From TrEMBL:
Biological processes annotated in GO: RNA decapping
Boundaries of every Calcineurin-like phosphoesterase domain copy: 6-181
Coiled-coil spans in chain: none
Protein name: Serine/threonine protein phosphatase
Length: 217
């Protein structure tokens, strides 16, 4: 059996991330790990989170790291240091100040470039992985960056998602992870005192998760 593991929003919580990686590597000897974004902001050590994820996996594991809205905000804040984007990121409670504190000042240029280069979506035979969501009325090719990074689903909403299962984070709840029809939300509010969650998928079986791995914050 081959597995895909999807990890929810981390937000600077390095200890739960390290324990989650250990749990996944104990679960299987190889596989694919999809991170759905929001590595930075609000939590205590965004720098260490990016250091760990950029370092990558051990062989034969494969990691796919998507962009979240918080990475997008961070990159925009540094694109023009005097812009409104920086004021929003630093001063509005989004968590940019905590991120800069973890660096002892400015975010490293190589970390900004890595964040800027992240893809917005990943899909395989049976699943679609995004940070926030999709609009099923439009094709995958016509999804907007804003929806992929910022969309929020009303409770209980699901669709057919082009015959695939949708996996996302972005909308935190202490009751997550939750599968609703053809959609699984894996943002369990780790940075808000919840847990870091991972959905486990069998690569040969269509549909939702076969298991969840959860690590307390």
């Amino acid at each position: 059996m081959r597995y895909t593991f999807a990890i929810g929003d981390i937000h600077g919580c390095i200890d739960p991330l390290n324990r989650m990686i250990d749990r996944i590597e104990a679960y299987a000897s190889e596989g694919t790990v999809v991170f759905v974004g929001d590595y930075v902001d609000r939590g205590p050590d965004s720098k260490s989170v990016l250091d760990r994820i950029i370092a990558g996996p051990s062989d034969p594991w494969r990691w796919i790291c998507l962009k979240g809205n918080h990475e997008d905000l961070m990159v925009a804040a540094y694109a023009d240091i005097n812009s409104d984007s920086r004021d929003v990121w630093i001063g509005s409670g989004i968590g940019g100040l905590e991120t800069e504190m973890s660096y002892g000042g400015r975010v490293l240029p190589q970390h900004l470039q890595w964040a800027a280069d992240r893809p917005l979506m990943h899909f395989d035979r049976y699943r679609i992985f995004v940070h926030a969501g999709v609009v099923p009325e439009f094709s995958l090719e016509r999804q907007t960056k804003h929806d992929l990074l910022w969309l929020r689903f009303p409770p209980g909403e699901s669709s057919d998602y082009w015959g695939k299962h949708l996996v996302h984070g972005h909308t935190p709840s202490l009751s997550n992870p939750v599968t609703t029809g053809n959609r699984t939300n894996i943002d369990s509010g780790c940075v808000f005192g919840g847990k870091l969650s991972c959905a486990v998928f069998d690569d040969e079986i269509a549909g939702g998760p076969i298991d969840f791995i959860e690590v307390k914050a």
